[in-house]
Design goal:
2 copies of one chain form a homodimer. Helix content of chain A is about 40%, strand content about 25%. In chain A, the strands form 4 sheets. Chain A has a 6-stranded mixed β-sheet, with helices on both faces. A 5-stranded mixed β-sheet of chain A has the order 14-13-15-16-17, sandwiched between helices. The first copy, chain A, has a 4-stranded antiparallel β-sheet with strand order 10-11-9-12. In chain A, helix 10 links the parallel strand 13 and strand 14. The radius of gyration of chain A is 28 Å and the shape is elongated. The two termini of chain A are about 50 Å apart. The mean pLDDT of chain A is about 90. At the A-B interface, helix 1, helix 2, strand 2, helix 7 and strand 10 of A face helix 1, helix 2, strand 2, helix 6 and helix 10 of B. Strand 14 of chain A pairs antiparallel with strand 14 of chain B.
């Protein structure tokens, strides 16, 4: 079962909005065991949309279009479906009635321009829109199932679940296609090329089971998938093999973030956390507090950008800053220990480094990209030195990732506290 | 000048990540006066990628590909370019050297799998990657300019600006294409429908000058564009008219963020800033420190999530928390005044509210979405109350926007200090 996803709209091609519909439709079809083989985005022009549809039909069992169903002259999905399938457009009287009711319920009268929304290519079926005015369209043509959904994401999502997924599921079942199961392993503290090397022949698998590897700033993701009978067992076997090779770097699975994993570990240990951030400027605190319920374990965060703040709020001795500098192992340790003592938290994580670009702090022996990360707990203080030059955004993101991973490794050393 | 944008990756087709690269590339090409006529997303399969390239070349002056340049066997953009253009792949010795240097600078040795990244189709040019290991590729073929950029967004963006846009600009100039001039006005403290109402007939303009209105969490953007002779003058006239209607809400233009505007105002006034954050959990500090050079004016930030932290680090009287609660005007004022006094900063911004979902803090009279924002400076303290229920992410983002906007309004009241 193969699918093509088509997005329609000039504002997408101008890059003014991100195409969240295409990602959502792709994700849901993939979960149902359908392979999305390509996506296409076209503007509000009839020939382009018609051509995209005609190119997709011979290649796809399922085609999902989003956008171009609204009331303006720039909405051309209905016409393109009719043109591609060689059918006339016919007004649906039941839909016309529903449209009048929708407006009446809101004390309004539909504009003349709303009524073309009630037209469908002959042989197609209108899909009711329960949270907007533009109905969707369902058409079976040359054995392909074609769905046209409205562009506003909330309307699209509701219609996708109610009218598309059940028909897709039925077709997948009829064709005997097995649902594809997937599992994503998330890694920190290792680069993409080293992870790929450790996986070796695994990433050359073909057929029912696949292993993919993806990277973003400070993170590598390994995507395992399998379909057909025994997919679950094959997935478990693959995961075991990957963990054997890379287990110590795996911090979570599927949608788990490092901040969620750290939060869970803190909660299990009934431990609290304080943060002392210099170069990450509050990003670690913001990530920690993205997790609902983090107020249960997050005691306090100090963003001590200025040296004066390190002294005042964290009690870093002025002598350390004078002699070792604010970007030094000594300072990182003093920040972590100061944050722990002053907040009364069980764990304290501190980072100090040089984000750049340039700036007064950098020097030949203290280049942009240098960072020290320290964790203080009841057993003492550990400190790591890293060097990762990059843009300011990359540096903040990567250092927050390295820091949360060090904290994670310190937390898993310690058994649950009574 | 027409362009096609191609995104590569199974991860995109499975809907596991949003395709932010395609939106960014589209937006930048549009700004340079190039019309993006279609976008295509293909998986990690050589025939699909080669076919997409071959289909694009006769239709586009410019083709930008992102993804598929990494070190794994699933990275096939190099091979697809070579196959589509009918050229062999050749190793670039200079790039090989640069790769070794990149790893050496980080105290590491490249894996064997990294070296194929240094191969290019004969006649193509490698584009240096200044913030990652995978170089880009530039190829002129049948009069089309083809650029292949790495998938990680930070690397893609840097390379897009440095190596793609200048070549595109040169070609646009040579072809005599009229650049579309655009100007974006950024607004805070007003919703999309109210802004649209104030603009009235302006957003119905057609032809050479266009006015678009876009919204995201805590922000409305008004996009003005014009092309052809006199575009600059028409744009200025449009901007004047929009500012007449909505000027007090306009905080910046084009790419200016609220944190950049606030930073500029602080710098001009030679003033320093302290932050006391509860419900935004460090997001405001992180936004302030996203600006290079913010260490010049950012004194310190306290993320006082727990009541204990508000007392210890900010000196909020325990009586206020006991009697008025931690989400109250009294507490917000005490947090701002405490942060200002303890940090020695000129301005202090404080937020305290209920992000939700649920949580011990909420109550009938203190619902999720309630927030108090205070600014303390030499003239005293002001406090605003807002109510914006939403998801946790939306709440943090919107409150950080409201808070920075209040600070901006306080700053513009005050003339430059001598």
């Amino acid at each position: 079962m193969k699918a093509v996803v088509i997005s329609v709209g000039d504002e997408l091609l101008a890059g003014e909005v991100a195409d969240s519909n295409a990602a959502r439709i792709s994700a849901r079809l993939t979960e149902e065991g359908v392979e999305v083989t390509s996506r296409h985005t076209v503007g509000d022009r009839l020939p382009d949309l018609t051509a995209a549809l005609q190119a997709a039909v011979p290649r796809a069992d399922i085609i999902v279009i989003s956008g171009g169903l609204g009331p303006t002259p720039a909405d051309l999905t209905r016409q393109a479906l009719a043109a591609a399938a060689g059918k006339p457009l016919i007004r649906d009287e039941n839909a016309t009635l529903k449209l009048r009711e929708y407006f009446a319920a809101r004390g309004r009268i539909p504009a003349e321009s709303n009524f073309p929304q009630c037209e469908v290519p002959e042989g197609a079926v209108l899909i009711e829109n329960t949270c907007g005015t533009a109905p969707g369209i369902f058409l079976e043509w040359n054995k392909s199932l074609i769905f046209a959904l409205p562009g506003p994401p909330a309307e699209m999502r509701e219609m996708l679940e109610r009218a598309v997924i059940p028909r897709v599921r039925e077709r997948v079942k009829k064709e005997g296609g097995g649902k594809r199961k997937t599992r994503v392993l998330r890694l920190a503290g290792i680069g993409e090329s080293n992870a790929a090397e450790a996986l070796g022949n695994l990433i050359r698998l073909e057929g029912d089971s696949l292993v993919g590897i993806y990277a973003s700033t400070g993170e590598v993701r390994i995507r395992l998938s399998s379909r057909g009978a025994g997919a679950g067992e094959r997935l478990t076997a693959l995961e075991t093999e990957v963990r054997k090779r890379l287990g110590k770097h795996v911090y979570g699975t599927d949608d788990e973030t490092l901040e969620a994993v750290v939060g869970k570990l803190l909660r299990e240990r009934k431990a609290t956390l304080a943060l002392a951030e210099s170069c990450t400027g509050g990003l670690i605190a913001s990530r920690i507090t993205d997790i609902p319920g983090s107020s249960d374990y997050f005691a306090a965060g100090i963003v001590a950008y200025a040296n004066e703040a390190k002294i005042r709020f964290l009690g870093v001795p002025a002598g350390i800053i004078r002699e070792d500098g604010s970007v030094s192992e000594e300072c990182a340790r003093a920040m972590a220990e100061g944050a722990r003592a002053r907040s009364g938290a069980d764990f304290a994580l501190a980072v100090t480094g040089i984000a750049g670009p340039g700036g007064a702090k950098s020097a030949p022996e203290k280049p942009v990209g240098l960072v020290y990360i320290a964790v203080a707990d009841f057993s003492g203080t550990v400190c790591e030195k890293h060097f990762w030059p990059g843009t300011r955004d990359q540096f903040k993101q990567r250092v927050s990732q390295l820091a949360l991973d060090l904290l994670r490794r310190r937390l898993i050393r310690i058994a649950h506290r009574a």
